[in-house]
Amino acid sequence: MLLDTASLYFRAYFGVPESLTAPDGTPVNAVRGLLDFVARLVTDRTPTHLVACTDEDWRPAFRVAALPSYKAHRVAADADPELAGETVPDTLVPQVPVIFDLLDALGIARVGVAGYEADDVIGTLATTATTPVDVVTGDRDLFQLVDDARRVRVLYTARGVGRHEVVDERAVREKYGIPGRAYADYAVLRGDPSDGLPGVKGVGDKTAAQLVRQYGTLDALLAAVDAGDPALPAAAGRKLAAARDYLAVAPTVVRVATALAVPAHDARLPREPADPERLVELVDRWGVGSSVERVLAALQRAAA
């Protein structure tokens, strides 16, 4: 089980009341919520391995170099109150290191790679795994990793962790009308404003899906554009030709990395805390005993 950790603690922050505080009055709603999510997921899915994947760089330089608009609106949010929802809330910022400290003390593997997003860590671990993989995220971009042959699926948490949707190749095909592993090319064509990805002007969901079905891959589609393929609708061909510069760089932004040098880690589900004394200190300081107990109980049941 690979956790898109930021996706989960953002959901926890906005889904759990900020009135949940530590003894000193510091909000710990994201901390409590994240721990409860972990307990629920481990209980429901009983994974043999668990990795909390982290963003070491949420806006990597190589993606910005390819497409300067990538997440640019989030950088501008400090200057534009209308975009404030895209930034990390002030009361969430100090909770993130607490979450990391607790995961470390519990013995849950936490993995990030300098210069990359959690998506890239997940992509690497998912495509190199020798066991079935569940990717837990609220980010549709990771649908591109779904692979029935390798037994990789996404537990999509848009409706909540407890009501997550299991996304396999059939689900992608039914929802978007595209082959199971074609989501990245589909996303390039239609764009994603939340990530500053403009897409091809005039190409929406339906046209993007039709083009992916017709040509299979973005490379094949662009070859058809260059060759003047008569089977390609003329209007679509003109729109794609006009967006050629964008289409040359967008895949670098959208496709997750799958060959990172991931740090050594023990992903096995811990049977007991890695640092019991530190865990007690953290529980006392932050007042998260009940949530930690739920995680420990879930880990022990799953590891039994």
TrEMBL record:
Report a single Gene Ontology molecular function: 5'-3' exonuclease activity
Mind telling me which InterPro entries this protein's record contains? Answer: 5-3_exonucl_a-hlix_arch_N (IPR020046), 5-3_exonuclease (IPR002421), 5-3_exonuclease_C_sf (IPR036279), DNA_polI_H3TH (IPR020045), FEN (IPR038969), HhH2 (IPR008918), PIN-like_dom_sf (IPR029060)
SMART domains reported for this sequence = 53EXOc (SM00475), HhH2 (SM00279)
Q: Start and end of every 5'-3' exonuclease domain? A: 1-270
Pfam families in alphabetical order: 5_3_exonuc (PF01367), 5_3_exonuc_N (PF02739)
Protein keywords = DNA-binding, Endonuclease, Exonuclease, Hydrolase, Nuclease
Q: Does the keyword Disulfide bond apply?
A: no
Keyword Chloroplast: yes or no? no
- Give GO terms for biological process: DNA replication, Okazaki fragment processing
> Which superkingdom?
Bacteria
- What function does this protein fulfil? 5'-3' exonuclease acting preferentially on double-stranded DNA.
What protein name is recorded for this chain? Answer: 5'-3' exonuclease
Gene source species? Vallicoccus soli
